[in-house]
Design a protein that fits this description.
119 residues; mainly alpha; 5 helices; elongated
Length: 119
């Protein structure tokens, strides 16, 4: 029997499984460990407990499925752009253009087409 279904006060949450609850709370706890402030006042001090409390009170927004994959893709692209910006700002000038040119080269690892006997 599902643990969440045993607690009537959590029936309105859009969380369909314990696994999703754990994943969401773990990601929120990671945010706390990286310096994010809790969105609610809490008596708890451990990041995991604070995160679980926020999730169970419905204070954490989350995406699933296609929306989550798209958001992850966009976040990855944003991190790459930020890293490129920081690299260019740090290196500067001619070196930056050379590095950017080197990074934009695409390596083709595919096998060359076999020559036919007619050639």
């Amino acid at each position: 029997m599902e643990t969440l279904s045993l607690m009537p006060e959590y029936q309105d949450l859009p969380i369909e499984s314990r696994s999703r609850l754990v994943i969401i709370a773990a990601q929120r706890a990671r945010q706390f460990m990286q310096g994010t402030r809790p969105s609610i006042a809490t008596k708890h001090t451990k990041p995991t407990t604070m995160a679980l409390e926020e999730v169970l009170k419905g204070k954490v927004k989350f995406l699933v499925g296609k929306e989550a994959r798209q958001a992850m893709k966009e976040a990855r692209k944003q991190r790459e752009r930020e890293l490129e910006r920081l690299t260019l700002a740090h290196v500067g000038g001619e070196d930056a253009n050379e590095i950017k040119k080197d990074l934009s080269v695409i390596v083709d690892d595919s096998k060359p087409a076999e020559a036919s006997e007619d050639d």
